[in-house]
Amino acid sequence: MDFILVNIIDGLVYGLLLFMLSAGLTLIFSMMGVLNFAHASFYMLGAYFAYQISIFMGFWLGLLIAPLLVGIAGAGVERYGLRRVHQYGHVPELIFTFGLALLIEEVVQFFWGKSQMAYVEPEVLHFTLFSIGDNAIAAYKVFMIFVSMGIFLTLLYILTRTRVGMVIQAALSYPRTVEALGHNVPMVFMGVFGVGTALAGLAGVIAGPMLGTFPGMAILLGSIVFVTIVIGGLGSLWGALVASLLIGGLTTFAAASSFQFADLLLALGMERPADLSESMLADLWTLSLPQIGPILPYVLMVLVLVIRPHGLFGKRDA
Amino acid sequence: MSDTSQKPAQKMATISAPGLSMVNLLPWILSGAFLLVMPFIFTSNSAITIMNQMAITIIFALAYNMLLGQGGMLSFGHAVYMGVGGFMCMHIMNMVEVNELPLPLPVLPLFGGLFGLGLATIVGAFSTRKAGTVFAMISLGVGELIAACSIIIVVFFGGEEGISGDRTYGLPVFGVEFIRPIEVYYLIAFWLMLSALLMYLFSRTPIGRMANAVRDNPERAEFLGYSARWVRYFSFCASGFFAGVAGGLWGINYEILTEENLGLGLSGSILMITFLGGVGFFFGPILGAIVFTLLQTVLSLETELWQLYVGALFVATVMFFPGGIAGVIMMHAPSVLLGKARLLVVPYIKTLVPGVLGVLGAAGFIEIIFHRRHAAIGDEAMILFWTDINSHAIAPVAITLAVAIVGFWLARRSAPEMADAWHRSITPDGPGTGGPS
After folding, report:
1. Does B308 fall in a domain?
2. CB A283 to CB B154 under 8 A?
3. What is this model's ipTM?
4. How many domains does chain B have?
């Protein structure tokens, strides 16, 4: 029981972190049809900016300012980069954001080098909040859960209950009509892109101390985020939430489990060969579930795509 | 012979004539001769290593462009097909060595191609349902999946140290044992010519033509009775085959394949190479592979920051020259044909010289800043453009920054003049076309 509870908490932390990235990504995609390949790079920028700010002004100001800076950078990218490339079509847009991701990684290495930064959680949150069995739950994890939940509820409120949200939703489906009604649709696009990247930046700020702040952090999370929104269904916010939690849970449970494939083979009535190097199944005999944990999201994605090409909640063609 | 029986023959002749005429064959003969002569011009071993690398990259880039340029499918995981082809070749190489099978080395890439094809037929079955973003995401996911498997399935992928082999196994082929790099070079050059020719011919077949149609307007192609999905599927499989051939050649050349041959890094670079070269023309990826390999080898010797520059170049290409190098070259075909290319010389010099100076200035500035941030404390001496300077002094920073700003400003100021000259050079003279409209 303890095992399950602890892993649910860990899965929630990771899943909600994924959701903060995939929410922005899927919003941007459903609005502009652009899959922002550089989204995880903005997440990385958030962590690095927050680290730099935290040196001078502490963690909390970093939490406030870094996402703003990332959002401004994102809006700038939309205004001066994407809008220009838009005329060539969606594939060049995707290639542009891919190039941007490479460039951001290089720029980060240019300023901060290749090694991991000493970006840590604030002193205030550096204690054990409670324990389940022998497992201590750090206060920072709970803080992460609350921040992500808060962001999710705010986003939901803005999108469904406010005037701005109405305009955004309308601009998603009928951009021309919304424009004819006197709203500045390019401005809305820029705003959504800015907010989406700022969300990614915020995710970076709070994930940096836990997952590490290093130049590879964007690639490490980036492809998982894409897998998430493909599983959830491109353009669906609820799909992004469900898929994020699913993947979060899946990877955490896989990483924590002690399942060996050898047990399965034995249960199937096979005999362990004396000399493993001769056997074609040598890998299966030595493999354990934590080892294949990292590939489970991809396997899940392929399965979803084969069985349900639109993704779990997707309405449009996926 | 009667008239009626001659007519179809004549018609056949007029249709197939463009494929066989001297003008169309000339580039192939020239490039074949070029490949033959190259090792006599650049004789050093390092030059041959670079050329081998280049040739393999060209095959891979051409295969990639079958997807991106001709089929409109953006793949983020194409290294997988090359990698799997290569890994299979290494296994075959080792198997042949152990069991002493009579399999000559030169046909090995064919097996690489077949296994690349095999994987592509499986993955393509569900990934080619749609083009565009969805295809890109699936290719990324599948690519990452197989790349991640490479560490898990040690029997096939060899874990972290990869799979290595020995190309000098077995019987010599006509006395050639493939010990020296030059012998490998000619083997690779042969496969390069063969695959390039086949890929070119593929783009001329009805299925290759339909791939273009499906790229531009899938709906309309479907109305004409073609299944967009099947057309994409065939292009995808063909591309997987040639990627596998490239992988087999990689295996022969380096005698080792590791997980890096499968990863996102290689998939990303092949996208960059193809796009830099230009996706709109058949020869674009060839140019891209040559330029990129040169940049990689030359620039990486000069500076640690070469990836930053290449990344910036790539983003600039996507933003300003979506046709790539080939597109820029072909932009000037009309002015050459009209005999007005000389109109361009002065405006180009006036814009490009300050532009290049500006880029060099900016690069110098970046290098100085980089040195200041990352050199050991107290290490203030650096070499910039063959000059010893002190990176912490004001003068070099000021000079490079000034050169960059002035260069860019001058280039920007004369850019409209250059654009105007270009427009004039592609406009035929004659009544009614007095000035730029």
Report:
1. no
2. yes
3. 0.84
4. 2
Domain end: B277, B301, B325, which one? B301
To the nearest 10°, the Cα dihedral for A227, A230, A234, A239?
A: -90
Examine residue B54 and state whether it is found in any structural domain, yes or no.
yes
Phi-psi region of A89 (alpha: psi -120 to 50; beta: other; left: phi over 0): left
What pLDDT shows up at residue A258?
73
Give the minimum alpha-carbon distance from A30 to chain B in angstroms, rounded to a whole number.
Answer: 12
In a domain, B393, yes or no: yes
Residues B212 and B279 in one domain: yes
Residue of A nearest to B321 (CA): A85
Q: Which two tokens stand for residue A136?
A: 């201590």
- Domain that residue B417 falls in: 333-425
Residues B210 and B339 in one domain: no
Three state DSSP letters for A199-252: HHHHHHHHHHHHHCECCCHHHHHHHHHHHHHHHHCCCCHHHHHHHHHHHHHHHH
pLDDT tens across B318-343, in order? Answer: 888 888 899 888 888 888 888 777 77
The reply to whether B373 touches chain A by the CB within 8 Å rule is yes
- Mean pLDDT lowest among A278-287, B44-53, B193-202: A278-287
What percent of chain A is predicted at pLDDT more than 90?
Answer: 16
A99 interface with B at CB cutoff 8 Å: yes
Does A180 lie at the interface with B, CB-CB under 8 angstroms?
no
Cα–Cα distance measured from residue B74 to residue A52, given in angstroms and rounded to the nearest whole number: 36
Cβ contact B417:B351 at 8 Å: yes
Looking at CA atoms only, how far is residue B254 from chain A in angstroms? 26
Residues B205, B60, single domain; the answer is: yes
Helix (H) or strand (E) holding B85: helix B79-99
Helix or strand run (H / E) with residue B382: strand B381-384
Q: Which residues on A lie below 8 Å from B366 (Cβ)?
A: 110
Residue B89 in 3-state DSSP?
helix
Global confidence as pTM: 0.86
Q: Which residues of B touch A282 (CB under 8 A)?
A: 154-155
Give per-residue pLDDT as tens, B194-228.
999 999 999 889 988 899 998 888 889 889 888 88
B357 and B278 together in one domain: no
Among the partner-chain residues B133, B145, B370, the one whose CB lies closest to the CB of A94 is B133
Domain end call among B245, B279, B301: B301
Among the listed residues A311, A314, A316, A21, the one whose alpha carbon sits nearest the alpha carbon of residue A155: A21
B80 and B211 together in one domain: yes
Nearest to A77 by CA among B272, B137, B318: B318
User: What is the identity of the amino acid at A305?
Assistant: L
pLDDT in tens, A201-246: 999 998 888 888 888 888 888 888 988 988 888 878 888 889 999 9
Please answer yes or no on whether B314 and A301 come within 8 Å at the CB atom: no
Contact, A289 vs A295, CB < 8 A? Answer: no
In chain A the beta strands, taken as DSSP E runs, fall at: 128-132, 135-138
DSSP state of A274: S
Q: Output DSSP code: residue B159.
A: T
Would you place residue B20 in the very low, low, confident or very high pLDDT band (cuts 50, 70, 90)? low
DSSP state of A140: H
| Residue B12, domain member (yes or no) | no
What residues pair up with A117 in beta bridges, in sequence order? A213
- Decide if B118 contacts B238 (C-beta within 8 A): no
CB atoms within 10 A of CB A1: 7
- For residues B171 and B80, membership in a common domain is answered with yes
CATH of the domain at B276: 1.10.3470
Which residue, chain included where needed, has tokens 């880029």?
B359
Q: Are residues B195 and B342 part of one domain?
A: no
**pLDDT tens string A176-206:** 888 888 888 888 888 889 999 999 999 999 8
- Are the Cβ atoms of A223 and B305 closer than 8 angstroms? no
> How many percent of chain B have pLDDT more than 90?
21
